[in-house]
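Record type: monomer structure entry
Structure origin: computed from sequence
Chain ID: A
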Amino acid sequence: MKNIRNISIAAALIIFNSSFAQVAIGKQTVDGNSSVLDFDNISGNTKGLILPATSGLPTGSLVNGTLIFDLTDNKVKVYENDTWKSLSDAGNSSAVIANNSAESGKGVIMGEASSTADGVLVLESQDKAMILPKVAAPHLNVKNPYPGMICYDTTSKTLAIFDGSVWNYWK
């Protein structure tokens, strides 16, 4: 049943992507006209976005704003101005389940017809952004966070990033 749901979500993303539309996940409509990807942010939400866990730093067509969970030092990192910057302290990757399947394709591009960026999910837009899942006090309410989880903490009004050990907060 879970596989059917995942396949349905993937098919919907591909269909929406081909029309360059805004995408809402877990709800019927996108909030406003300024987002390319929006999540269901109902009261009591405890679900976030999980970053890709990589063994080392990706190479290739990197663009500013690329986010990963680096398994070599267990840190969440962002690519900015030709360098990787840590967004967390060293965490713990023991809960990360390795994906050993062969990659195929370029991933999903949303917002534009193509992209020079190389990623699993690439959001391209000149005038739209992604609205992160909103969670009130994730350090209290997310019972089993996964390494690389990010969300917007509505209580502290900060970006919350779980590194596998603790939550890191950015204003």
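Annotation 1: Helices lie at 2-18, 138-141.
Annotation 2: The mean pLDDT is 83.
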